[in-house]
Amino acid sequence: MKKGWNVRKLGIYLLIGMLVLGILLLAPMMAIARGGDASQPCDAPVDPLGRLPSSPEEAHKKLLERKIGWPEDEGAEAQAASVKAGVNVSLPFNSVEGYVTNPGANVKVEVIRGATTIGTLTVKANEMGWFNADFNPLSVDIKSGDQVKVTDLADNQSVTINCVLAANIDYDQDKVSGTASGTKVRAYVITPNTYYGDVPPGAFSKEVSVSGGAFNVDMKNSFNLLPGDAVVLYSIDAASNKVMDMAGGVVGRLVVYPQYDEVLGYYYQTGTTITVNVAGRTRSVPVMGDGFFEAFFSDYNIKAGDKVTSNLGGAREITVRDVSATLDPATGKLEGTAPANRLIRVAVGLNTRPVVLETVSDKDGKFSVDLSGKYTVSGQEVFNVAWYDDDGDAVVYDFQTYSWYLAEGCTEGEFETWVLVQNPNNDPVPVTLTYMTNQGVAASESHTMAPNSRKSWLVNSKVKAWDVSTMVTSTSGAWIIAERAVYGKRGGVFVWGHDSIGVTTPAKTWYLAEGCTEGEFETWVLVQNPNDKPVKVTLTFMTNKGVAGTKELDLGARSRRSWRVNDSVVAWDVSTMVTAPEPVIAERAVYGKRGGVFVWGHDSIGVVNVFGR
């Protein structure tokens, strides 16, 4: 298996809000859609942000499209001027790729075993000089010990790459050792999971030097290798030519993904046919060149209680059991339930290099992992939980959290701010409210909302600040809706108020069309930085005469700042564009005064990507 992976601007903000809510209302329904048998249940997790596959078919497609790529590496100049440094030779995929300095040139690639050329391909480089030679149609299997010769036929300059790379995994000692022809070897670990851009970066990686043709990648005290993990190796020579292969010596293990009706795994015996049985349904699938096999049960919903069996290097079986999990940004803890007394492995932050941690469930099946100091929980995570049986077979479940961001808020003076959350689900939903000021995170609180309910929280009871933003996180990933209302008092009596829905997706550019700073109008731009690092935000003010000025704001990690537009430009018509190098959230509030006192106000979230920009 190769792993490779106008609308018109709405003038009324209420309509924008209705559109956003409409899309979110449709998201759960779309997530339930599934091809094939319409009566077939779907356990794919419902992700309102669309980060997870919405159906087994989508997951199956992503798994087929995943790729093992090539790490970037700086090396010496090429041995020949016309064949650039960094030729890549894949032993599992029997392919050779690289660059020549003559765009459009014919490139001859030869595989030499001993003194015999066992395969020759002539391919044409593209306009960038890139070429790719796939030897699979010729049934040429490139093996460790072969040589690959690449010749640019435009000037007959060539390079030869020694393809020595062979290694075995020692799971007991957490190491990979073997032989290589390069000067260094880089190892990447693939764990059972559903993140799709595995290598690079992998769940763990390490680089070692080759000495006397041998290498040893010792991961003890760094990463716990488990049966079923795969290790991708790259031997890199002085000219940055790379040879890639999978470490061998792996005893096959079953890995079941019930939400996607998939059974996958890694098995060293490539070319073998694996038979997988689930509840009387059987799939016979090949082990691909990279050692992975995949059995998709498109006509059956794998569920708790199902026994999965296989002839994977001997009889193997595992019985599926359910798992639940939540991830709380307030505590940094990932908690859940799984089968009792089992090894649990969690992988968090799946869109980059994941943080992989292990624990053991207790006698009641409860488990907890503290991510503090290892990973900053943002409230927008995709993660998975795998539990292992006594034989090392595993069942993997995907989970996610998502958040609503409410950039506006004030709890000083006679301002009162409320956060309003709706749970439209038939089950309880745990939520966490995180309050951010210009000093960073000021407070947080966690609650469980009853089914089909609504709750309001008075932010004044938790934090006093002129600038307060709120992040409302569904820590179990269940669908919720959040708004925020701000009220102004005079002598303890409410005299005005404004309200806005939240934002679910931060962005690098926001547009705030409304604004006025003439007369007794006052306009404020409110920016929330949910990232765990500071950002510099640029406000660009536009009037009927064009750009009227800019202002830069420094926002600390997970903080909020406000800017009074009147201090930068005075005009009846003012719009603001907010840009930042990292995704942020922007709102705009306009207030009207009478005799210098606020008597009314209105507020709206910004607009993002209106024209697909």
Features:
613 residues, mainly beta, Immunoglobulin-like, seven-stranded mixed beta sheet, 43 strands, 5% helix, 48% strand, globular, disordered N terminus
Fold blueprint:
Elements: H1 13-32, H2 56-65, E1 88-90, E2 95-99, E3 106-113, E4 116-124, E5 130-134, E6 146-152, E7 157-163, E8 165-170, E9 175-180, E10 184-190, E11 204-209, E12 214-218, E13 230-236, E14 242-246, E15 255-257, E16 262-266, E17 273-278, E18 281-286, E19 292-296, E20 307-310, E21 316-319, E22 324-328, E23 333-337, E24 343-348, E25 355-360, E26 366-370, E27 382-388, E28 394-400, E29 402-406, E30 415-423, E31 429-437, E32 440-449, E33 453-458, E34 469-474, E35 481-490, E36 493-501, E37 507-512, E38 521-529, E39 535-543, E40 546-555, E41 559-564, E42 575-594, E43 597-605
Parallel strand pairs: 1-14, 15-28
Antiparallel strand pairs: 1-2, 2-5, 3-4, 3-6, 6-7, 8-9, 9-12, 10-11, 10-13, 13-14, 15-16, 16-19, 17-18, 17-20, 20-21, 22-23, 23-26, 24-25, 24-27, 27-28, 29-34, 30-33, 30-35, 31-32, 31-34, 35-36, 37-42, 38-41, 38-42, 39-40, 39-42, 42-43
Summed up, what is this model?
The chain has four domains: 53 residues, no CATH class; 175 residues, Immunoglobulin-like, CATH 2.60.40; 77 residues, Immunoglobulin-like (Sandwich); 203 residues, Hypothetical Protein Tm1070, Chain: A, CATH 2.60.290.
